[in-house]
Amino acid sequence: MDARLNLFGNPLLGTVLKHLNSAGKAVTESALPTATQELVKLRASQINGCGFCTDMHTKEAAKAGETSTRLHLVAVWREATVFTDAERAALELAEQGTRIADAAGGVTDEAWANAAKHYDEEQLAALVAIIAIINMYNRLNVIVQQPAGDYQPGQFG
Predict the structure, then answer these.
(1) pLDDT tens, residue by residue, 91-110
(2) φ and ψ at 74, to 5 degrees?
(3) In terms of CB atoms within 10 Å, which end of the chain has fewer, N or C?
């Protein structure tokens, strides 16, 4: 299986990805816990049907010490007992922020207030940014049908 367009070899997309990666680095270096970042990226990628990002963030999370149980249960986090209240709030925000078109009004006040109970302003900013960034990565990969399964942890630095 080949992608429709080489995201990594196209000069214009290379420039776009360079800037997107820089934005992602700002979030990575924030006070938002790494585990939360990976869970949010994984959940948004599942919702968007992005195989490449689902593969990548499952492997990156595992490399960072995430358990297979938690990774397997991200898609059904509401019924799983393995996530903290803070992680649940982040996953809810990620779902609503990813499914903006599915709900008039976008992210609910309740979801925002719940997240704000667990995260300070910098962490909330990081959550908003990481949700937006992963959604852009998802859309790029889904549009070009980027193959999944071969990602190696740390592959992109």
Answers:
(1) 999 999 999 988 777 899 99
(2) -55, -40
(3) C
- How do residues 47-77 score in pLDDT, each as one tens digit? 999 999 999 999 999 999 999 999 999 999 9
Place of tokens 């195989």: 51
Q: Taking a C-beta distance cutoff of 8 angstroms, is the pair 87, 70 a contact?
A: no
CA angle 132, 48, 104 (to 5 degrees): 70
Record the pTM.
Answer: 0.95
Residue 87 C-alpha from the chain's centroid = 13
Specify the amino acid at residue 25: K
- Tokens 């992005």 map to which residue? 50
Rounded-to-integer distance, Cα 155 and Cα 84, Å = 29
